[in-house]
Amino acid sequence: MILIGHRGCKYPGFNQNTIRSFEKVTSEGVPAIEFDVQLSADGELVVVHNLDLEEVSTGKGEVSSTDSNALKELFAGDPKRGKDRIPFLGEVFDFFASCTADKRPSIHMELKGNNTGTKAGMLFNEYVAAGKLVNADILASSFNWAELEALREVCPEAKIALLDGAIRRKSLLKKTGAEAEKYFAELFAYGNEDYMLPKFPTLQENMALLDKICMDAKIHSQLAGELADCLNGKYYTDELLESATDMNATSVNLWYRTISREFIEKAHARNLAVFVYTANTPEEWKKLNEMGVDGIFTDYYADAVRALS
Q1: What are the structural domains of the chain?
Q2: How many CB atoms lie within 10 A of CB 205?
Q3: Are the beta carbons of 304 and 11 closer than 8 angstroms?
Q4: Which terminus of the chain, N or C, has less C-beta within 10 A?
Q5: Would the pTM of this model clear 0.85, i.e. be above it?
Q6: Is pLDDT of 143 > 90?
Q7: H-type helices in 135-216, by residue range?
Q8: Phi, psi of 260, deg, nearest 5
Q9: At 82, phi and psi to the nearest 5?
Q10: What pLDDT score does 113 carry?
Q11: For 36-87, how does the pLDDT look when each residue is reduced to its tens digit (9 = 90+)?
Q12: How far apart (Å, rounded) are the C-alpha atoms in residues 305 and 296?
């Protein structure tokens, strides 16, 4: 079981998805680092998690609507934790390439934005062709599996992981209609994005919030059903595993709150690894390790190492 530095780390004094946070966990011996890739308005690959810059930087507006020159002027996260510029994907690959092969963490690259797969794959190919990185260094993941297919078209030897476990905005809107969308921002974490999570860990807590904000009986019923399906692990199906197998994926990357030992065993029977996002307490790390997951994304790598040692 490996521990993966989620966006580097979230230690005091460090901002996530920054070169400095990647350097920190690498100095601690982290075996893998995860980060997120989007496209700027002028088509540059930039490492930012949220679609809305205001939530993760000193900027405002969506990443996809902001050009690269403007992004270069912004700080990632909170400048009080350090004045870290938002990195571009080439800078991140440069960091990994600067690590000696025996100390280089694996690259877990989430294709967060639309139309990132082809460009990210082509850029990675340049580093491989130059002898700076090797194909085995990277594992690309995405909730948008079409982006993984696009990356594979230009980088056929890249390992891929199918992300799931989040509520897919477009699928939910097909069930509820557009009139339900006004509740998403308040009801879900990342409620303004394409892939959302229930705001609270238990169905009871989420239902209490839903009862408070939604009086429309039909929409309430539909949203309640989706919350229950998500939190009860109903997204983790044989079809998901079949898709991962058909795409020759290395792993399925799933929400740690909704994973089950049974599904882990089913994935292993198909030679698929199971990585889970994003667990941050000793109790969670130990439980997931006992369940048999193959990897845990965490904001607190050093603490997790100590807890599991």
Answers
A1: 2-165+236-308 (3.20.20.190), 167-231 (no CATH)
A2: 13
A3: no
A4: C
A5: yes
A6: yes
A7: 145-154, 169-176, 184-187, 203-213
A8: -130, 155
A9: 140, 140
A10: 85
A11: 999 999 999 999 999 999 999 999 999 999 999 999 999 999 999 999 999 9
A12: 11
